[in-house]
Specification:
By secondary structure, the chain is an alpha/beta fold. It has two domains: about 220 residues, Spore Coat Polysaccharide Biosynthesis Protein SpsA, Chain A, CATH 3.90.550; about 190 residues, UDP N-Acetylglucosamine Acyltransferase, domain 1, CATH 2.160.10.10.
Length: about 450
């Protein structure tokens, strides 16, 4: 556990996103960019995280909840001005502050830890994380002395032609000794091309005061990429998904085609699960071992047991226990619990229902607001009629019941244990356990009718 506090800058509008949503709330691999940064900070051991909000601040606070402390920057006067807003919360902090940007979702806890350790080892007052960019356009450039020490950072818009050729850039991530940071920030002016208070100016100021400033170079520039546009967001998304796929494969998950497998950052998958192409695993989904998911399946916030087979299936906010076989073309909607060894065949929808162990829903069913026991067999075309136009009602089906094809169960209604229902029935009254219910018109055969018609 490192002893550090972070300040995360997230007040900017993100003009280039062309969005009403604050930039840092745009999602990559299923979670807001700011959440990626916050998670990396927490995993690096940060004991306090202070987020500077401004544009859409209420939205950002609401999305992050209790995870961080917040300060407001009412006017976006630059990154230096943004960090100063955190001063009241940090005036008693004697330790080390890491400044991060809310728009760098690829940053890792390892990188933050490497920056912190490099800073401590050097005994510096300020350390900047740098990266060598293939295309440095837009970034602040690291200007070094002939001896190789960092002299200052110059922004793209303030740089000379010679300085623009430098490919070593400011990642926007820094480590500072807290007291020195705020003392230097008070001296930062805004005489520059953007008339902004630049945080990177702190390095030049400290150096002129004879303090040691330092740079740690990121091995891989990707982890420092700052996202300013939708095109860059799509690039970050690709990198995060590739990282996640590699993590899963390293843990024993088979991905038939990683390029067409989309797994959100926080999803967990057990060993020996095989994922077929065009499968999405989203949000807080947890998948057990030995499953076969896909092709073409999507699970969001789903809890899936071991040995589940699901093809062409969409499940969200649902629990699917072990040994369940589903698909093709199955939709499991929120608040559904499918117990062990249930078989769900083609074109079936289940909503807000419990389906007991070993029950079969083989084809063309709608099951809504229902409690179904164990070992039940529902014939093709069984429908729970749960909605009367105003209210939803529940259906209950006892264990080992057998429901004939094309039956409508008009809720509220219950079918007792082991009961049978004749095909084509419309069931409007409760069916006692162990009995047979038939609710359909009697068939009448008229002899010779065809000849008489001639
Ligand atoms: C900044 C750095 C640049 C660095 C780059 C890395 C400055 C002056 N420049 O440039 O050297 O290479 O990041 O990505 O710092 N923000 C606020 N309040 C403000 C302004 C910005 O909170 O008044 C926040 C933004 O929301 C964003 C972060 O600070 O999360 C960086 O701001 P941005 O405008 O993206 O800075 P860059 O021009 O990218
Ligand atoms: Mg930026």
């Amino acid at each position: 556990m490192l002893d550090l506090v972070t300040v995360i800058l997230a007040a900017g509008k993100g003009t280039r996103m062309k969005s009403k949503l604050p930039k840092v709330l745009h999602k990559a691999a299923g979670k807001p960019m700011l959440q990626h940064v916050l998670d990396a900070a927490k995993n690096a051991g940060a004991r306090r995280n202070i987020v500077v909000v401004g544009f859409g601040g209420d939205q950002v606070r609401e999305a992050m909840g209790e995870q961080a402390e917040f300060v407001v920057q009412t006017e976006q006067l630059g990154t230096g001005h943004a960090v100063r807003q955190a001063e009241p919360l940090l005036k008693d902090e004697k330790g080390t502050v890491v400044v991060l940007c809310g728009d760098t979702p690829l940053v890792t806890s390892e990188l933050i830890a490497a920056l912190y350790e490099g800073h401590k080892a050097a005994g510096a007052k300020a350390t900047v994380l740098t990266a060598i960019m293939p295309d440095a356009t837009g970034y602040g450039r690291i200007i070094r002395t002939p001896e190789g020490e960092v002299a200052r950072i110059v922004e793209q818009k303030d740089a000379s032609e010679e300085e623009l050729k430098v490919r070593e850039v400011n990642s926007g991530i820094y480590c500072f000794e807290c007291q020195e940071l705020f003392a230097a920030l008070a001296k930062v002016g805004c005489e520059n091309a953007q008339a902004e208070y630049y945080l990177p100016d702190v390095l030049g100021i400290l150096r002129e005061q004879g303090e040691k400033i330092w740079a740690v170079a990121a091995e891989d520039y990707e982890a420092t990429l700052g996202i300013n546009s939708r095109v860059q967001l799509a690039g970050a998304e690709k990198i995060l998904r590739r990282r996640k796929n590699i993590e899963l494969m390293d843990k024993g998950v088979t991905l038939m085609d990683p390029d067409s497998t989309f797994v959100d950052a926080d999803v967990e998958v057990g060993a020996d699960t095989v994922i077929y192409p065009f499968t999405w695993l989203e949000g807080s989904t947890v998948v057990g071992e030995n499953c076969q998911l896909g092709p073409n399946s999507r699970f969001s916030d789903a809890k899936i047991g071991d040995g589940v087979c699901a093809q062409f299936t969409y499940g969200h906010e649902c629990t699917i226990d072990s040994g369940v076989i589903m698909g093709p073309y199955v939709h499991i909607r929120p608040n559904s619990h499918i117990f062990n060894d249930v078989k769900i065949g083609n074109f079936v929808e289940v909503k807000n229902s419990n389906v007991g162990q070993g029950t079969k829903l083989p084809h063309l069913q709608y099951i809504g607001d229902s409690d179904i026991g164990t070992g039940v067999n529902l014939g093709c075309g069984t429908v729970t009629v749960n909605y009367d136009g105003k209210l939803k009602h529940r259906t209950s089906i006892g264990s080992n019941a057998f429901v004939g094809c094309n039956t409508s169960l008009v809720a509220p209604v219950s079918v007792g244990e082991g009961a049978y229902i004749g095909a084509g029935s419309v069931i409007t009254k409760d069916v006692p356990a162990g009995s047979l219910a038939i609710g359909r018109a009697h068939q009448k055969n008229i002899d010779g009718w065809v000849d008489k018609r001639k």
